[in-house]
Amino acid sequence: MQMRLLGRTGIKVSAYCLGTMKFGQIGNPDHGECVRMVHRALDAGINFVDTADVYGPGGESEEILGAALRGRRDDVVVATKVNGSMGPGRGGSSRRWIVAEVEQSLRRLRTDHIDLYQLHHPDPDTELEETLSALTDLVRGGKVRAVGSSNFPASEIVAAQWVSQRAGLARLRTEQPTYSLLNRGIESEILPVCHRYGMGVLVWSPLAMGLLTGRYRPGGERPREAQLRFVPRHMSDERKHAAVEQFARVAEEAGLSLTHLALAFAVNHPAVTSAILGPRTLSQLDDLLAGTETRLDDDVLDRIDEIVAPGADVGPIDVSYVPPSLTDPKLRRRTHG
User: Fold this and answer.
1) Cα-based distances in Å from 291 to 41, 175, 272, 279
2) Residue 55: active-site member
3) Taking the domains of the chain in order of start, what are their residue ranges?
4) Any idea where the NADP-dependent oxidoreductase domain is (predicted)?
5) Per-residue DSSP letters for 141-210?
6) How far is CA 283 from the centre of its chain?
7) 47-83 as b/e, with b when 16 or more CB fall inside 10 Å?
């Protein structure tokens, strides 16, 4: 497994990261199989695992990961997230919530420190300085080794860097955006900004929520009902299905599975540190691991660019972050009177 530096943190991580969003009730309720998936990934050379407090009721994914890492914690770079809603009044990026919730994540993970603590989404209701000040105290107190962001627009990443420099606070060292053959928008601004500030990048959903597995092609298997409820527009987007068909032909002619083509593409960009694998079962993980050494030549990459141009998104994913400036009409319409 290829190892890469996580930005300028000095931490070395595998080019693929095990994502645990589907551990527990949200995907695989068999805790034993989930633990075996962690062990299988570690044995294959992965040393990077990503989770979040909101993955599963009551932080179930973190609890499973904590159990799986018993006796192996020192060999693993553990990343988790804060900000998502854990119940009424329990969420966001305020100092009050961060300093309380980090203790719960530490308890569930059965560890005394978190290697990478990430803000799951921007919080327009909290000043960045308030949030970064709280995260800085966690770093100085030894509970967190490095801090990062997830789903941040380029403008928010830059603003956070400026606030940290001005106030002498811990810098965001990583960003976790979505990136795949179908969603290349981060190539325009987010990846260049991360490169400029020496940030590591771990990308989520390199298989586009399952569309790039090849299982959901026209006339084939229907997506799981849970997936249809979770991202219905994404799973039914005809433009995406048309692009998937073209990518499938490219993969076949290159002697690859569509899944392995998609994974190799996700880690090919020089600004990407690691791509997050999100298996639900051991068999899915085994297939993903079989493709982690795949490399794409320039001819294949040129054909990919012809299907979805660099910096282009075929269409958004339902769960992608949308800033209030687009969702709140009052912020984009003048009032009259």
Assistant:
1) 13, 24, 17, 13
2) yes
3) 3-331
4) 17-308
5) TTSEEEEEEES--HHHHHHHHHHHHHHT-PPEEEEE-B--SSB-GGGTTHHHHHHHTT-EEEEB-TTGGG
6) 21
7) bbbbbbbbbbeebbbbbbbbbbbeeebeebbbbbbbb
pLDDT computed for residue 223 by the predictor: 55
* Buried-exposed string 225-236: b where 16+ CB fall within 10 A, e elsewhere: eebeebbeebbe
CA distance 202 to 8: 14
| Pick from 247, 219, 249, 224: nearest CA to 235 | 224
Residue 117 has a pLDDT of 98
pLDDT of residue 218: 65
Look up the CATH number of domain 3-331. 3.20.20.100
Enter the tokens of residue 274: 């690691």
**Tokens 């020192």, residue?**
74
Q: How many CA atoms lie within 13 A of 234 on its CB side?
A: 21
Q: What is the pTM (predicted TM-score) of this model? A: 0.93
In the set 16, 55, 179, 216, the catalytic residue is: 55
**How far apart (Å, rounded) are the C-alpha atoms in residues 18 and 49?**
5
